[in-house]
Structures are given as structure tokens and as C-alpha cells.
Amino acid sequence: MDIEQRRQIKKYVDILLRRKIIIILCLLLGVSLGLGQYLRTPKIYKSSAVLKYQRQSVNPTAMSPDDVRTRTRDVVDTISQQIMSRSSLEDIIKEFDLYPGMRQAAPMENIVDMMRKSHIETRFLQGGDVFEVSYQGSDQNKVLRVTNALAARFIEENIRLRQELASQTSSYVKDELEMAKESLDKKEILMRDYKLKYYNEMPDQLVNNMNRLNALQVQYQNNQTSSHELERTRLLVQEQISSRQELLTQLSAQAAVNTADSSSLSGSLSDLYQLRMQLQNLQTRYTERHPEIRRLKKAIDDLEKQHGVSMGESPDQADGSAVAGTTSQLDPQLQELHQQLKELEVSIARLKEEREMLTAQIDQYEKWIAATPVREAEWSALTRDYQQLNEHYQGLVTQNLQAESAQSLENQLEGSQFKIVDSAHFPEKPFKPDFKKMMALALGIGLTVGGGLALGLELLGTSFRDPVELESYSKVPVVCAIPIIHTKKELAVRKLKLFVWYAILVLIFISIVIAAGYFWKQGMIIL
Questions:
Q1: Which end of the chain has fewer CB within 10 Å, C or N?
Q2: Is the pLDDT of residue 363 over 90?
Q3: Do β-strands 430-432 and 417-422 pair in parallel, antiparallel, or remain unpaired?
């Protein structure tokens, strides 16, 4: 430290020593004013309640009012907005008769806003799920009751809000489920009617239709093959009948030659019989419209009318005297061939009917198969939205179950709730003003004012108290310094002045101490 710094320090110390009475007086006045201000300032008490957001023990669902992703701060902020609303705070003000003087002078809206901003505080503590709600006011009992009421409001509002949200969610999901079910039922009815109408033409029946068509075509081919075989067999049987009849005709003719003098009638009947044999042989080869068959039928009719023989009657029967007995009718082999021919004709007719039925079925299956691509396109357009509707419906069913479960939990008070960890206590010490802080501030102000006043007086003074200042001002070096010499009378007056000032200061100090002790005992000063 150099000489200049020491000189400056000594200068300020001398100022403090010379002006100590002013500084002490300002200090005591500051303390007095601070004490008076403290006594005049209304005492503000503060009470706090600690709450914890306890999450539900049952695993929450997506339809719960809050799930594991919901932060406690968000829940508290939501409930705080409900509690800090004008209607809620107005009910509290009226219930506990808060701010009676202000309610007569100011509108309720301003009082509620002041209470919300200045008197109610919510802050989170360590742990995340624990927070503190506090209220401050001038009446200790009201502060306690209002704080407990605010804590209770958190619990009540949370229960009410969660039950309301759960009920609204459940009602909304039920409405959506009914709408989805109605749409799905209409779609299913439309699909059912379409499928019943075009069941055999649906794409899922294509494989069965193809298999059935192949089986019918094979059956039709087998029918044709069997019919052709029966036709060939019938032709063979007819040839055998013709051959047998020719043989019997020859035997009958031989027997007729051996009889006595055949008449012209026998010859005519023989011609008739031969014409009939020729007609039967032609009928196995040609249709009834063939010219030769028509000619033979006309010739046979003329001979039958001429000799009085019917179509079904044998010439041998008409000429009972020419041929003894009906050889052809009595021949067992010929009868067996005729019976076999009848059976073949019945089988051929049955196969023909079956073939016609198979043809109709084949045509029907071919129509169904040809219509399958059209039905597939129509079915795809019809069922395009069904899958999405069904998935939406199934999702709503799951959500409805979850919403009903969440509503049941909320009604049974098993959901997430606020729990009071530490209820509000009676505020014994005021929150504002703080006596120690106010006295420290008063001391600081008194010292600042006293120091500033002492420094100002020194700066306004014209005396030189340092030789260096005199040399600097006069530009003349100082040779020596002579101290002030007081007379006895001057010393006595000076001592008397100091005594008076010290007595005044001591009296002021004692007065402050006595006043502080008195007000402390009266409970007006709370440390």
C-alpha cells in the first residue's frame, strides 16, 4: 500500500470520527423509522399444505383420464385452472368472508384477480409428484381454513373432473360403437343378399364349379359312349331278328309248298310277309321319311286292305290252312331277341334323357363360370370398405371395454388421486413483514444517510485539514504544522456539547430498546 492510499484511508477515518455523532444519530433515526414502519405494516401470515399426486394402482388404459405418459405437472396445472377460476375463488371469498373492506370498494373481478396473483401460490417440491399450495392473509384462522379448503378443492376437483372425463369418453365411444355397428350391419346385410343371389357365381365357388363341370363333361362323354354302344348292339339285334325271321319265313314257305295246291291267296300273304320283313330291315337303317320306307308302307297297307289282314297280324295267321300254326310266334330265340331289343330301346331312351339333363347342367355351370369374373369385380367393389369397417368396429369394441373399465375405476375412486401429505398448520409467525430483514434494511439506510451527510458536510467545508491539500492549493511548501490550542473554557464547552449529544443518543437508543421490548411482549414484534 503506497502513501497516497494510506493518506486517503486516514482522511475518511478522520471524517467518520469527526462526524460520528451525525452518523450515529442517522443510524438511530433509521432504526426508529424502521421500527415504526414495521409496526404500521399489516402482518401477513402464510400457511401451506403439501399434496401428492398418487397414481392409480390398477394399470391404466388408453381410455383413462390420464395414463403413464401424463405428467403430474400437467394434471396439477389443469386442476389449478379449475380452482383458480373466478367462480371457484368467488365461492371461497364468500364462504370465508375474505377481504370485507375491499369488497365494498372494488369489484369482485379485481379482488379475485388480486387473490389469484398475490395470495395463492402453487409450487412443486422435489420428487416431481409432490407440490405445495399456500395462501397468505392477515387473519391467521382464515389463512389456515382457506389453505385447507384449497387443498380439499384439489382432491374434489380432480375426482369430479376425472369422473366427468371418464363418463364423456365412455358415452362418446358407445355412440361411435353404435354408429359403426349400424354401418357394419348394413354392409353385412348387403353382402349377404348379394351372396345368396349369386352364390354359385361367386369366386370362391369357381374351383367347385370347374370340378363339377369337368365331372359332368366326363359323365356326358361316358353317356355318349354308352349310347353309341347300345345303338350298335340294337343294330346287331335287329339284324339277328331279321335273319331269324327270314329263316322262319323260308321254313314256313317250305311247309306251305308241301301242302296241297296252294291258292292265290297264300301267295299274296307270302308277299305281304316279305314286304313286312323288308320294311323292318329298312327301318333299322333309315328314318321314317325315307322314300323306300314310305313306298313299302303304302304297299303293305294296300295288301292288308285287300285281304283283310291287320298290321299286327301275321300272314301265317290269316292263312290257317296254308301254314299249320304261327312258327314265328312260337320260336323262343326270336322272342328273346325281341325282348332284348325292347330293353335296349328303353336303355337308349334313358341315356338320351340323362344326356339332355347333363347338357342342361353343363350349360348352367358354364354360365356360372363365365359370370365369375363379373361377380368377382362386383364383390370386390362391394367389400372394399368392409375390412376397414370391421377393423374400426373391433377397435371401438376394445375402446368401449377400456372406457367402461376406466369409468368403473373412477366411480369407485380407484383412479389417480391427490393425497394430502402434510395438512396446513396454524401460522404463528407472520410471513410479511420480516422484522430482522426490515431492521437490517433500516440500519443500512441509516448508515448510508449518515455517511452521505457526513461526507457532504466535509465537501462543503472550506477548511484545509491536510498539509498536502494546503501545498497543492497555495503552491507554497508547508514548513511546520501547529495544532489547535483550546482554552479551558473552550474545552469545557466542547465537553458539555459532547456530553449532551451522547446523552441524547443514549436516550434515543434506550427508548428504541424499551419500545422494541414492549411491543415484543405485546406480540406486535415477532422475531
A1: N
A2: yes
A3: unpaired
| Confidence at 404, pLDDT banded by 50, 70, 90 | confident
Which residue, 341, 380, 418, is CA-closest to 156?
A: 418
Longest distance between any two alpha carbons in the chain, whole Å: 223
- The span from the CA of 32 to the CA of 27, in Å, is 9
Dihedral over Cα of 245, 247, 252, 256: its sign: positive
Predicted confidence (pLDDT) at residue 215 exceeds the cutoff of 90: yes
Q: What is the full DSSP assignment across 299-339?
A: HHHHHHHHHT--TTS-HHHH-TTTSSS-HHHH-HHHHHHHH
pTM of full prediction above 0.90: no
How far apart are alpha carbons 213 and 207 in whole angstroms?
A: 10
How close are the terminal C-alpha atoms of the chain, in Å?
Answer: 44
135 closest CA partner among 124, 146, 149: 146
Residue 224: which H helix or E strand, with range?
A: helix 206-258
CA torsion 216-218-223-226 (nearest 10°) is -160
Euclidean distance between CA atoms 269 and 265, whole angstroms: 6
What pLDDT is stored for residue 62 in this prediction? 53
pLDDT at 214: 93
State phi, psi for 379 to the nearest 5 degrees.
-65, -40
- R_g of the chain, CA atoms, integer Å: 67
Average pLDDT in the chain: 79
At 107-151, the pLDDT tens digits run 888 899 988 888 898 888 876 678 889 999 888 899 999 999 999
338's grid cell: 325281341
Kind and range of the H or E run holding 47: strand 44-54
89: CB partners within 8 A, 6+ apart: 83, 112, 115, 116
Asked whether the beta carbons of 424 and 48 are under 8 A apart, the reply is: yes
Provide the pLDDT for residue 326.
Answer: 46
Asked whether residue 284 carries a pLDDT value surpassing 80, the answer given is: no
Cell (9 digits) for 331: 320260336
Q: Which residues, other chains included, contact 376 with Cβ-Cβ below 8 Å and sequence gap of 6+?
A: 202, 203
